Amino acid sequence: MRIVYHLGAHCTDEDRLVRCLLKNRARLAEQGIAVPAPTRYRTLLRDTASQLRGAAASDETQAMILEQIIEEATADRLILSWTGFLGFPAYVVANGLYGHGGDRLREFTRIFSDFEAEFHLAIRNPATFLPDLRGRTLQKGHGDILAAVDPFALHWSEAVRHILATNPNVPLTVWCDEDTPLIWPEVLELVSGHAPGTPLEEDDELIANLLTEAGLKRLRAYCQEHPPQSVAQRRRIVTAFLEKFGRPEALATEIALPGWTEEVVGRLTRSYLADVERIAQMPGVRLLEA
Fold first, then answer.
1. Structural contact between residues 53 and 169, judged by C-beta atoms closer than 8 angstroms
2. pLDDT beyond 90 at 24
3. Pick the CATH number of 2-199+266-288 from 1.10.10, 3.30.1490, 1.10.3470, 3.40.50
């Protein structure tokens, strides 16, 4: 069996992926893909990793954990989705960007040391990611996580490099959250591993949140009458509908941090784009691009 870890990151997926796969769990189970509810494993895995302290779980422990997680009689692929695999929001920038993420992932994979693993991660422009993350942690009563942090010193490529170094031979798929509306079907397929062409219910939730109601109806009708013949064609269609029927309040991202001028945001964005190029060149990484 292969264990698939969908890592988030924070402020990207909002559990949309696992919700979609859960709605299709019966169909996916027919292909040997198990999609347990997060309540079955998030606390369980956190507590188990804490108890093991980096040691590999025994065969008996692995079997016991899997029995509590998986309802299906047999499975070839197990999908686990949780931003907590990498860390918790208050500590995301405590030692670089997800500086301890690789070590945490190593602890979780040691629970299932007898099984192959793979990682999937969405990254996001720090110019929007950091203000969003800061706002969420402040709402939960934490201090300002950016108070003593240089945002230009935070690089996704360093987080990716650490994940790869501490988890050798574990393949990692990365995509930019900004591209997700255009590549959502590919993301779902890569994470779940379902056969190409498998129809999934409510797999347009993401685009539905970005389009007006009228726009969504027209998009569905258009695709029904003119089924896209390729991934590239579908992306062109979605892009056209977003341009014409996109909801401005859903597409716009407000950046409001003291001292963050347009120049700062522009520099962070350019740095991010260069960082994505570095990630694309890393051995062991598959970058899914729009």
1. no
2. yes
3. 3.40.50
CA distance 273 to 279: 10
Q: Where are the beta strands (DSSP E) in 73-193?
A: 77-81, 116-123, 172-176
Q: In this structure, what token pair is assigned to residue 284?
A: 């062991």
Q: pLDDT per residue over 98-152, tens digit each?
A: 999 999 999 999 999 999 999 999 999 999 999 999 999 999 999 999 998 999 9
**Banded model confidence at residue 202, pLDDT cuts 50, 70, 90:** confident
On the 0-12 / 13-18 / 19+ scale of CB atoms within 10 A, 230 is exposed
Helix, strand, coil percentages in the chain from 3-state DSSP, rounded to 5: 55, 10, 35
Structural element, H or E, at residue 26: helix 25-29
pLDDT at 274 over 90: yes
pTM beyond 0.70: the answer is yes
Burial class (CB in 10 A: 0-12, 13-18, 19+), 221: exposed
Q: What is the Cβ-side half-sphere exposure of residue 100, based on CA atoms within 13 angstroms? A: 14
Instruction: With CA atoms as reference, report the closest residue to 99 among 149, 150, 161.
Output: 161
pLDDT at 249 over 80: no
Q: Residues 21, 182, 78, CA angle at the centre, nearest 5°?
A: 25
Give φ, ψ of 283 to 5 degrees.
-60, 140
The domain ranges of the chain are 2-199+266-288
CA distance 267 to 218: 38
